[in-house]
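General statements about sequence and structure are easier to judge against a single worked case. In the encoding step, the backbone of a single protein was reduced to a row of integers, each denoting a local shape. The record that follows shows the chain in one-letter code together with its fold in token form.
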Amino acid sequence: MIGIAQIGCYIPATKKSNVDLLDKFATNEAFLRDKIGVLKRAQKQPHETASDLCVQAMEDLKQRIEIDLDTIECCVVVTQNPDVKIPHTAAIVHGALGLAETCASFDISLGCSGYVYALAIVSAFMQAQGMSKGLLFTADPYSDIIDPNDKNTALIFGDAATVTLLDEQANLCAVGFDLGSKGADYKKLICENNQLSMNGRAVFNFTAAKVPISVTNLLRKLNLDKTQIKQWYFHQGSKYIVDTITKRLGLDPALVVFDMYQYGNTVSSSIPLLLSQDLAKLQVGDKILLSGFGVGLSWASTVLEQF
């Protein structure tokens, strides 16, 4: 089986304070902390692109685990904010890292559900092709498409990137997935003319309705009970939505990971950023659940088990 060996991360050092925007948006710090869950937003430099963020994440990965880049057989980038329309960002990352010409490279155009979707896609792709090592990047620099005067988005999104080393010898493996879309509502979270707009209430209602069902269906399919899940990793859309999902599923809040106060909603990078902090703590037999949701509108849930 293809599993997660390690995760490298990059969060830009520049942080923009939401507290400084309280008067502009007629809100208060309690709203920032308890509802949005974002006090500061990480922001890349204007000249930096998605591929630049990926390369920075790779530098962090190399500090965490020894990697022979000549052994990497696929390079995949999850992004909806690519460097350019043509070519795919994975090709740019491939060149920047000096990967072998025999290394397959492609993008996956997904947002908040993208990491879980990509785990399903890339692990199956690697197994079908007989590959043993791959790199899965996430990078969605939303600062390029945010309207600074739009309260619905300006206080929420931050920039970041991650890279997951997938390896047939790794022991943290997916044992099942639940994937879905409500494409009829695609306009509820959309970027047109290079500007993001979001119907926050509609996205919240979608998430609050669909994610608990997805999680319940996945656990039923795997014959698992909620008590068998060691920890829960939901996409960090906002504190309010994570709290709502936690309540609707009847979960112990202490087991639900939340950490976006100092960098914001990083789209496809939010789940791997959380997971990177806990990989070393997992023991044989531990099961964790990941669930991403948003752009599409779409959702994707998986259970990972440490073998």
Remarks:
- The chain has a mean pLDDT of 96.
- Helices lie at 29-36, 50-64, 89-97, 114-129, 151-154, 200-221, 239-249, 270-276.
